[in-house]
Amino acid sequence: MKFRYASIPYLIWSAVFVLVPLGLVAVFAFTTQDGTFTIDNIARVSSYTPVFMRSVWLAILATAICLCIGYPLAYLMSRMSGVSQRTMVMLIMLPMWINFLLRTYAWMTLLENNGVINTVLRALGFGTVRMINTQGAVVLGMVYNYLAFMILPLYSIMTKIDDRVIEAAQDLGANPLTVFSRVIFPLSVPGISTGVTMVFVPAISTFIISRMLGGGSNMLIGDLIDAQFLGNAYNPNLGAAISMVLMVFILLVMSIFNQFDDSEEREGMLI
Questions:
Q1: Which neighbouring-strand residues pair with 37?
Q2: What pTM value is reported for the model?
Q3: Number of H helices, E strands in the chain
Q4: Taking the domains of the chain in order of start, what are their residue ranges?
Q5: CA separation, residue 8 to residues 13, 14, 26, 144 (Å)
Q6: Euclidean distance between CA atoms 262 and 257, whole angstroms
Q7: % helix / strand / coil in the chain, to the nearest 5?
Q8: CATH for 49-270?
Q9: Under a CB-based contact definition with an 8 Å cutoff, are residues 149 and 63 in contact?
Q10: What's the pLDDT at 261?
């Protein structure tokens, strides 16, 4: 009974800061500015399909790059000694101690036409390379800002893999590739699921990175929603409809991936 009463503050917090905002988004999405019920806002979202596709593609690309970089790095960290592990975790988290906006501004300074990288290239005899205001710059900003969200869940899972399991597989004659595919990878699937979710969700909804590093030619869903609420195209009802469609899409992707994660985890337990 005491534990039940202890959960009341959390329930109140969830109702005020989660359910009420979601309810307001739903109300705005299905009403006009004068409060009349309509589904036109949802129907108009289809006209922004290119923006949705661009956002999904860049988010998938950034997530894949984070996974390719984060997985081997997390595995190497999990094989280090205790002091080295703590040092690496601190170094990975160090950029997160700096304001998100300042980190993105730093990349603007590096990538602009008269920035540090192009200055070095010109000094070496190369011409100016256009890096700012491109999709590549947007993906780079996503990878830099969200890479830690991929590494830390993977590292947390891999440190829990018992070395005796790996040694047992080696004693049975398994080569390194077999050990990885039949032991390490199945046991690390929960970390992959968590890392992919933590990178994909903020990447597909970001607007600061695309605005600062991509310029106006690389509008993403986050920029579109921001323009409806705070920009010249002020239309909060349409912005709420876009937000609702984005939320449903994210929930659908997460549910599908969680199903895949559960099946892989059960398979890993049977191996």
A1: 31
A2: 0.89
A3: 15, 0
A4: 49-270
A5: 9, 10, 25, 39
A6: 9
A7: 80, 0, 20
A8: 1.10.3720.10
A9: no
A10: 62
Q: Cβ(168)–Cβ(271) under 8 Å?
A: no
Residue in the structure block whose two tokens are 């985890």: 265
Alpha-carbon gap, residue 211 to 133, rounded angstroms? 9
Give pLDDT tens digits for 130-159. 899 999 999 999 999 999 999 999 999 999
* 235-265: pLDDT as tens digits: 999 999 999 999 999 998 888 777 756 555 5
Query: Is residue 146 within 8 Å of 199, Cβ to Cβ?
Result: yes
| Rounded average pLDDT over 85-105 | 91
Are 228 and 9 contacting, i.e. CB atoms less than 8 angstroms apart? Answer: no
Strands of 176-268 (E only): list them: none
Residue 180 burial (CB count, 10 A): 16
Structure tokens at 207: 């607007």
Q: Name 31's bridge partners.
A: 37
pLDDT for 43-81, tens place per residue?
A: 999 999 999 999 999 999 999 999 999 999 999 999 898
Amino acid present at 145: N
Q: How far is the C-alpha of 224 from the C-alpha of 52, rounded, in Å?
A: 10
Q: Return the structure tokens found at 124.
A: 């070496």
Token duo for residue 73: 């790095």
The whole-number pLDDT of residue 270 equals 42
Give the length of the chain.
Answer: 271
Cα–Cα distance for residue pair 109/116, rounded to 1 Å: 7
Q: What is the pLDDT of residue 9?
A: 83
Query: pLDDT per residue over 36-52, tens digit each?
Result: 999 999 999 999 999 99
Q: Each residue of 200-237: pLDDT tens digit?
A: 999 999 988 998 998 877 889 999 998 898 877 789 99
Distance between terminal CA atoms of the chain?
42
Alpha helices in 94-134 (DSSP H): 100-111, 116-123
